[in-house]
Amino acid sequence: MSQARYWGSRVANSLMILWGTMSLTFLLMHLAPGDPSSIYIRPEIDPETVALIRQQMGLDLPLWQQYFVWLKEMVSGHFGFSFSHNQPVAEVLLEAIPNTLLLTVSVFVLQLIIGMTFGLYSALAGKRLFAKAIDLLLLFFYSIPGFWLALMAIFVFSGLLGWLPSSHMASFENFDNSIDILLDYAWHLVLPASVLALPFSAQTARLIESSLRTVLASDYIRTATAFGLSRRRIVLIYAMKNALLPLISLWGIYFPFLIGGSAIIEYIFSWPGMGQLLINAVFAHDTPTILGATTIGAFAVVLGNMLADILAAFIDPRIRLT
Amino acid sequence: MLKGTLGTIALIIVWTLLGCGGESTGDKTQHKADYRSSIIIGIPKDVDTFNPLYTETAFAHEINHLMLLGLADLDDKSDFQPELSQSWEFAEDNLSLTYHLRPDMRWADGHPISAEDVEFTYELIADPVVASPQKVAAELIKKVEIVDSLTVRFHFKEPYPYQVFDTAEEILPKHVLEGVARDQLRGHAFGRNPLASGPYKLKQHKKQQYIELERNENYFGPKPHLEKIVFKIVPDETNLLTQLRSGEIDMMIGVPPAEVDQLKKANSNINIYPVSGRLYYYVGYNESLPKFQDPRVRQALTMAMNRQEMIDALLYGFGKPCVGHIPPMIDWAYNDNIKPLPYDIEAAKDLMARAGWKDSDGDGWLDKNGKIFEFSLKTDGANTIKSDIVVVIQQQLKAIGIKVALQPQEWTALMGQLKAKDFEAHLSGWSTSLFIDPTPVFHSSATDLFNYGSYANPQVDQLIEKGRAEMDRDKAAATWKTLQEIVYQDQHYSFLFWVDRVVAVNSRYANVNPVPLSSLYELEKWYDSASTEKLANSTGN
Description:
The complex is a heterodimer.
Chain A: H1 3-31, H2 47-57, H3 63-75, E1 81-82, E2 87-88, H4 89-125, H5 129-143, H6 146-160, H7 178-216, H8 219-226, H9 231-243, H10 245-260, H11 263-268, H12 274-283, H13 287-315
Antiparallel strand pairs in A: 1-2
Chain B: H1 2-19, H2 26-33, E1 38-43, H3 58-67, E2 72-74, E3 80-82, E4 85-90, E5 96-101, H4 115-126, E6 141-148, E7 151-156, H5 163-166, H6 174-177, E8 200-206, E9 210-215, E10 228-233, H7 237-246, E11 251-253, H8 260-266, E12 270-285, H9 295-303, H10 307-314, E13 319-321, H11 345-354, E14 367-368, E15 371-372, E16 374-380, H12 384-398, E17 403-409, H13 411-419, E18 425-431, H14 439-442, H15 458-469, H16 473-490, E19 493-506, E20 509-510, E21 527-528
Parallel strand pairs in B: 1-10, 1-11, 16-17, 16-18
Antiparallel strand pairs in B: 2-3, 4-5, 5-7, 6-7, 8-9, 9-10, 11-19, 12-18, 12-19, 13-19, 14-15, 20-21
Helix pairs in contact in B: 9-11, 15-16
């Protein structure tokens, strides 16, 4: 199969998956009890007004018509109108996505640094006590629930010590220069990013360690050693390149999280991202926002898998995308 | 530029005049307003919109009311006080109501506030295309007449007691919203950046983060003492409490009762204000089922529920027994002669026996004609307090031999089931409104609305109809008091308790006075007693 045909069918497949997910979610949302007009169920609002509001929401149409109206909205990029934000859903999503990206990309970089460092150290140091201790510590962070870690971190570092802010992306004071603004953001990032990065770095460290061990035992490494290449060069360049492959698949799975965010952690730290948006939308029965956020999530899954395949082929020429 | 300067001069003149107005606290007031001061209020949820036509959450309404005012507003005694108006008078026939606006009022952009804004606002409220949830306020208004730029007259379809209520909606600026297509109003930028008429205006709103209000320098009333009001949005309750303790926030509304003691211990600088609320919980019975038709049975059920124990155990004492639909805060209509049925297991058993329900086979459950008395109790399973109450009720009713099966439901599903009469009994809460009209809840014609249990008592219907049409407050009060007595005798509901709202404020702030009506009541008068930094642009003493 040629490259062009491969990509053609891959994109077509992805679009089908997207459409399928979106339609299924749409159907499920409409099968569930309650709709965006539920918040108007109270004695002070007369039934005629509720009927008017439902009409504005388009809820008076038969389901198949609602589906096509919604599909048109999605394709045109408006994503419908959110009645809990009183704004088009696209605007609401565009406000939340950058905030989530700021958090998740920081988490990604942070976990990569921590995970690689300790993974590498464990693989090379072997059974030393310190390596074992680190292993244990990372396992601890991996095993405990994120929300608990978050609450403990807030309790200790904000409540008791008062070192770090316990919520929000930035202070509400306006700073005069951009360095102060950046520092303020970084300051607010420390707690949520660490809480998310620590368990994840344990995964990365483990993966790096085991895959590096396998690679280091292989023939070509022995050959390289025999050739008299330095240990550092062998490990960091020749071995690392192959040891990274399993990590890349992991990144593919991680990609949706980059855009979708972590609902619980965002909620606890009042981080105004996609995760919190989705939670609020569910509580408000805000169907258009739920559908918009789900679509973005599905899109991220499809895109993440595709990117992981490309990246793997780029690093390892043995893998061919056909 | 010139306009701005003139505005400032005008403001200083108005301010000086007000300051010299002979108020004894005048000097002190001015002094407080000259200091750098703010308050940070932690709230769990962002506002949906700043446009009062579409605001849905009760608290968003309170925030909005700091920026946008109506012609009149309720005070803490449930009386109306002038806001954008100076005075009003009713016509002899009660078919019209004339407001006289204050002459010195301007929007935050300097544009004068006039009768045209009032007429325009009510045109919007009444417009079906606008589809405002407040539309019902315009239902009985026939016409809004502009008499002159400062006089506006409402004409009504019929005389009724809530005419001031209906005409007290927040007034919107015509010059801003005039050109907006009516079906686009909901999403219009005004909802994110409103033009203020009240003491504060919006400085910035960072979604899901902060709402920052600053003084509206064009406000006609006395300058508020606090320079800035910041609402910090923190959805997680534990985090909110941590921030209150550490002083990151100065105020929290709705402190969980279980946390109050801890909070007092952890930080002695926090004042706790329990405020009686407008929310009550009740058990509603489906009276179309034979087992609930005997009023003695319903009375017995109430008497077997230890309501004080629920208040003590679940609300840590922050609640009051409830005997009816009218909240104690509306004191002119609240009947304080009704004593709650006592918690009395023996009397309850006796009542059940008289209704024919006895434990004839000794298995511990009451029965009649071979069938035991059992029923299912539905509630909103996601609501913590409701889930707790039903468990307590199940235990307490077991003591008199009544078997209760708990059926927690998803809230919207529950709403559907109640409406379809697909229930035996349910535990729910009503957040009562400020005007009294129990029609949708207790009138026999409202079985397709909120009279879920098909309660039908002709005397109740008659009293509701009489009360809601009565123009004279004293006469209306008598009617409502009689109604409460009859509804309590009937025990269509087992009324449980009213829930207090617990407000916590840092003791630095003086003049704090949360009332049932609003936790932010008279926020303009609050001041920070610890503030010492003087404002650079203060108007001086």
